[in-house]
């Protein structure tokens, strides 16, 4: 959410088309992940370990954990900031308190209980749908930006593209999708339903992304106001909430953080336990899977330490999205390979459209990552 507010403020509707193209990309990635989880009975990390060896498994593990720690730091800082906006306190000591609350949910709740909480919290993001309409944007400009892809290749646009891809196609997202199928013990007969569920989820996510960008572009972008703090980002909701914009943004930011931190921390626990063959699963107690839960706690502690350095949560969230975009192509490549590997998923053939789509998504994210890094190193103009 914070990433899209920053992008909307810096490019207005210039990247609205990308938020719509995210939908087919998300569909492809989520369907591939669903296929791996249902047909192989393994989460992605375990599938990579069994299919491609320990070395490749460790490379995937490192790429995921590196992104996880930074993203957890950004999200616990964002959650604490949101609470501060709601209660009128800006104490940095809210950061460990928020992280502790999330850990309690993971340590004491079972998988289905955690999932149920996250589904309810998602409703907090619906405010941006109304905000996009009440912001009264120039709908002609919105349509042009949404339907006509334009890539100026300026630093702002390239960074914005990478951040959007990094925050939506990030590795913990499709790792968690594979985990969900294993935890729910889905049978092969449920594959079509699970794939349809992934398509619907990707579509709703893309609509929310588009609304956030339009709302922020019509408010912050229209007035050329850069976003450095949560208070500035809250202006995107002012058309809907007026003076209550800060509280409404805080509610959405808190919802986003409450959704993200448990998923990221748990996915890190799963990939680490899978890489080393440890007992794992939120359906187990901490005593039954002590090392699995130890990894979850260690990620949260590392995130708290990084968040306490004083870097603003909005900036930290945007940087985390960039890092996620750079790191995720490795996981995407391995996801496509695992989804089509008969030794892992059996004789059910991978549709050629899914295979091609997966490779296209991986190549596009990798290419934008290379362009971004080249611009940062001044090897390309921008």
Itemize the secondary structure elements and their pairings.
Blueprint: H1 2-11, H2 16-40, H3 44-52, H4 54-87, H5 94-108, H6 111-121, H7 127-134, H8 139-147, H9 155-168, H10 171-183, H11 191-221, H12 230-233, H13 238-241, H14 245-276, H15 290-307, H16 313-339, H17 342-345, H18 352-376
Explain what you see:
There is one protein chain. By secondary structure, this protein is mainly alpha-helical. α2 packs across α8, α2 runs parallel beside α10 and α4 packs across α5. The chain contains 18 helices and no strands. It is globular and about 55 Å long. The chain has a single domain, classed as Amino acid/polyamine transporter I, CATH 1.20.1740.10.
Q: Determine the mean pLDDT.
A: 84
Q: How many domains make up the coordinates? A: 1
Shape by Cα distribution: globular
User: How many beta-strand segments?
Assistant: 0
Strand content of the residues, in percent? under 5%
**Helical proportion, percent range:** over 70%
Largest sheet: none
Measured distance between first and last alpha carbons: 25 Å
The number of helical runs is 18
In short:
The protein has about 375 residues and is mostly helical.
Keywords, please?
mainly alpha, 382 residues, globular, Amino acid/polyamine transporter I, 0% strand, 18 helices, single chain
């Amino acid at each position: 959410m914070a990433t899209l507010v920053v992008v909307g403020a810096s490019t207005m509707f210039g990247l609205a088309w990308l938020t719509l193209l995210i939908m087919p990309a998300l569909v492809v990635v989520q369907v591939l992940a669903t296929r791996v989880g249902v047909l192989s009975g393994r989460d992605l990390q375990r599938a990579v370990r069994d299919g491609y060896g320990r070395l490749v498994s460790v490379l995937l593990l490192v790429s995921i954990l590196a992104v996880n720690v930074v993203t957890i730091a950004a999200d616990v800082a964002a959650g604490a900031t949101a609470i501060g906006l709601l209660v009128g306190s800006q104490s940095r000591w809210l950061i460990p308190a928020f992280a502790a609350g999330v850990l309690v949910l993971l340590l004491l709740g079972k998988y289905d209980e955690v999932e149920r909480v996250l589904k309810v919290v998602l409703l907090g993001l619906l405010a941006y749908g109304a905000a996009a309409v009440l912001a009264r944007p120039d709908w002609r400009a919105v349509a042009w930006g949404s339907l006509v892809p334009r890539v100026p290749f300026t630093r702002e646009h390239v960074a914005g593209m990478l951040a959007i891809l990094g925050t939506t196609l990030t590795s913990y997202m499709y790792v968690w999708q594979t985990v969900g199928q294993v935890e729910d013990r889905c049978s092969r007969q449920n594959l079509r339903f699970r794939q349809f569920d992934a398509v619907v989820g990707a579509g709703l996510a893309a609509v929310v992304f588009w609304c956030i960008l339009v709302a922020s572009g019509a408010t912050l972008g229209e007035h050329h106001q850069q976003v450095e703090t949560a208070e500035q980002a809250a202006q995107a909701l002012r058309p809907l909430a007026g003076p209550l914009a800060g509280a409404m943004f805080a509610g959405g930011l808190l919802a986003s953080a409450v959704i993200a931190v448990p998923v990221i921390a748990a996915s890190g626990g799963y990939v680490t336990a899978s890489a080393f063959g440890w007992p794992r699963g939120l359906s187990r107690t901490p005593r039954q899977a002590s090392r699995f839960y130890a990894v979850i706690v260690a990620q949260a502690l590392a995130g708290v330490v990084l968040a306490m350095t004083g870097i603003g949560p909005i900036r930290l969230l945007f940087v985390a999205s960039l890092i996620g975009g750079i790191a995720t192509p490795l996981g995407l490549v391995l996801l496509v390979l695992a989804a089509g590997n008969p030794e892992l998923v059996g004789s059910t053939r991978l549709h050629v459209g899914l295979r091609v789509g997966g490779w296209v998504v991986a190549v596009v994210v990798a290419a934008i990552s290379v362009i971004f890094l080249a611009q940062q190193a001044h090897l390309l103009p921008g």
